[in-house]
Amino acid sequence: MSQKKKSIRIIGFKLIAGLALISGSIPVWAENVPNPTNSSDRQAWLELPRRVEARPTIPTYFLAANSTDESTSGSRDALFGDDEPALPKPGLKAEKAAPSSFGGIKGFLQLEMARTTENPVHWSKMLTRADLSSQGNLGGGIKWKLGARMDYDAVYSVDDFYPGAVARDQRFNLVLRENYMDISAGDWDFRLGKQHVVWGEMVGLFFADVVSARDMREFILPEFDTMRITQLAARAEYFKDDYHAELLWIPVASYDQIGKPGAEFYPYQLQPEGVSVQYRNEVRPRRNLSNSNFGLRLSTLKNGWDISGFAYSSMDINPTFYRDAVSVPGTYIYQARHDRINQFGSTLAKDFGSFVLKGEAVYTRGRQFSVVREADDNGLVRQNTLDWAIGLDFTLPADTRLNMQVYQRVFFDHDPDLISDKHENGYSLLLNHKFTDALEAQTTWISSLNRTDWLFRPRVMWNFERNWRLAVGADVFKGPPLGLFGTYSGRDRVYSEVRYSF
Hints:
Elements: H1 3-28, H2 39-50, H3 93-96, E1 101-116, E2 122-139, E3 142-153, H4 155-158, H5 164-170, E4 172-176, E5 179-185, E6 188-195, E7 213-214, H6 224-227, E8 228-229, E9 231-240, E10 243-252, E11 276-279, E12 293-302, E13 305-315, E14 320-324, E15 331-337, E16 340-351, E17 355-365, E18 368-370, E19 380-382, E20 385-396, E21 400-411, E22 423-434, E23 439-448, E24 454-465, E25 468-478, E26 493-501
Parallel strand pairs: 11-15
Antiparallel strand pairs: 1-2, 1-26, 2-3, 3-4, 3-5, 5-6, 6-9, 7-8, 9-10, 10-12, 12-13, 13-16, 14-15, 16-17, 17-20, 18-19, 20-21, 21-22, 22-23, 23-24, 24-25, 25-26
């Protein structure tokens, strides 16, 4: 047998082993918990426990539990936040005269399986994902990028655990990713089209990352690049020495995807004892100029300090749930809507050699929050807030990395009937260790300091062949029903992923 055939057989064996681990090994941990045998039992379980759940204490758009460091450097290309390595900048005359180029097709294929371990044990994900993109240089200071992603989750075809509306929403998705054109003209760069806009500096925190919408149908568990939803935007960057300015206009905004009632991580709202709950369809802003988003961001790099400030006016990407307690006596009817908010923020980053310091702060005006009192017509109160976070990132011996962050939300003129305290405090820890070039382990812990409310995420990653990665892990929630993580304490799961990148 030739060496080439042996190599193919070895790769095939490893792939089969990885798929076997996905489909068999991990779910065995959860098989001893009773499972309803018919759809009516399952539907009863879906409704009863969730009717006592409430909106998380800290809104979920501030956190992401599985991410990489996405801070940007001071270069012009890095400021655009490309997922792929940037093509050479066509700013010089020689580059402008260069012939057009095509970067080929890049992307990945990924299989994901997850099994919820709480009673009733059930499959919660059997996802196949294909993500494709390409980019090129037309010359004359013009670049382009095209991208799309297709998802098919077979769990909604092989099992009737979830309601039909959830299955229709999450079984199949075809979405456009980044599709834009870059134009360079002297000190100005312009990007037109669907794009990611990353303004934050923190690891796993969304405080200053106010522009991008997110897919929240798996809560905050996916990686950043998976969660982000592109915005159709016109963006201009002006560069001069160590300074740059960014102007942003989003004529037709994208908004967070929260799924449908009955989904694993739907953001259920407060339900007092003896009151039933219904959910109306989400209302999104009309596509007109008055509902467009716009912002300005200024930054500088001085003595190693990367400092920025921004102002942003938008229709809130995260929905606010309005309550109707009058139309149907004894029933709360909730409807997700989006209000205009104004945000002013700043970020900083500094590399001290042995560690990196990062910080963010955002002041938000106009956002409304749920209250527990029943007298309010819509169950909401307007509150101005300040969110800030500070973190340290250490590179330790033996290929080990430690990231520590603390964060806080301050409610000005705090309403006593808010679910949240006047000061909501929390912290996160991320520890990553590489055992070999192919094998590493990571643990993420995010917790409230106001109450026992936390998320624990151990994960092991094995690059078992070139371009192939196998990951296994668990997501464990703990806390009270009104907590950010406690509201999902019945959603503990184990999972595995196989990815082929090209």
